[in-house]
Amino acid sequence: MKRITRILAAIASVFALFSCIQHAAMASDPPLHKEANGLPFMRITVTSNGNTVVYILNDSGASRSLYNQLPMIVDVENYGGIEKIFYPPEKLNTADTPLAKGANAGTLAYYAPWGDVVMFYASFGSAAGLYELGHVVFGQEQIEELSGTIRIEKEVK
Prior knowledge:
By secondary structure, the protein is of the alpha+beta class.
């Protein structure tokens, strides 16, 4: 009887150990699909002439600055044959915003020297003063088609 009790105690100890290890691993991982404050990621929708592009923003000062200015209606311009640009009403706060190190098609960025937001539809790379805001999650192929006046809104799910 003592042997069975020891075996059961050993099995219970093993299960408890695995449970603690799993709980510790989950607690140390950052929350997926959530900002640091536990809220859902900031998503924005850009529309123009029947085209819709959806971006997910990173949790940075510049992204929050842009998000807090929405909704907005602005003119979009083609620039350099690889990007669309627009100027938000107020400059973005780049504090704690990562530099864009390898902007590709679908990257949303902020070029601080000019104060414009950049929607890349082709690969670019990096540049001094180019900050990453987020990336496209829907409609990447439509970025190049954006023209004239665009509407930018918070996407509410």
